[in-house]
TrEMBL record:
UniProt xrefs under Gene3D superfamilies: 3.40.50.2300
PROSITE patterns linked: RESPONSE_REGULATORY
Biological process according to GO: phosphorelay signal transduction system
UniProt keyword annotations, A-Z: Phosphoprotein
Protein name stated in the entry: Response regulatory domain-containing protein
Occurrences of domain Response regulatory (ranges): 10-129
């Protein structure tokens, strides 16, 4: 049986748009799945803040907005996967479903298209978190 009372999972949410960050947090809620611990969100709006949080460690997952400028989530995902040892799984929010091929280049584990579908985002995030935290 999974201990769901353990320390919260930390999820980084990066976007220069506070509304996008709020949409992500509302879509996932405090506990995206009953088998997972509660979630603690770390909201950031700049690339240096993303880097600082990654350097600090302890992140279970990162959600990066691909539409943020000047540093988009796809470019940050690529740099993180190239440079950060033991980087957390990354979900990139993309402007169009046709841009999903860029996730292959960026090495992000998943993409979700804008406008955000809360159910799709939750399914994607839970799918990335459960294998790490829940036995088969």
């Amino acid at each position: 049986m999974t201990d769901t009372t353990s320390n919260p999972l930390k999820i980084l949410v990066y976007s220069d748009d506070v509304d996008v960050r709020k949409q992500v947090i509302l879509a996932l809620g405090r506990r995206p799945h009953p088998s997972l611990p509660e979630v603690e969100y770390v909201e950031v709006a700049t690339e240096p803040a993303v880097r600082a949080q990654l350097d600090a460690g302890g992140l279970a997952l990162a959600v990066l907005d691909g539409e943020t400028a000047p540093a988009g989530g796809l470019g940050i995902a690529k740099a993180v996967k190239d440079e950060v040892r033991d980087a957390p799984p990354i979900v990139v929010l993309i402007g169009r479903p046709q841009d999903a091929w860029l996730a292959t280049w960026s090495r992000a584990e998943a993409t979700v298209a804008h406008p955000l579908d809360p159910f799709e985002l939750a399914r994607t995030v839970v799918g990335l978190l459960r294998p790490v935290n829940v036995g088969a």
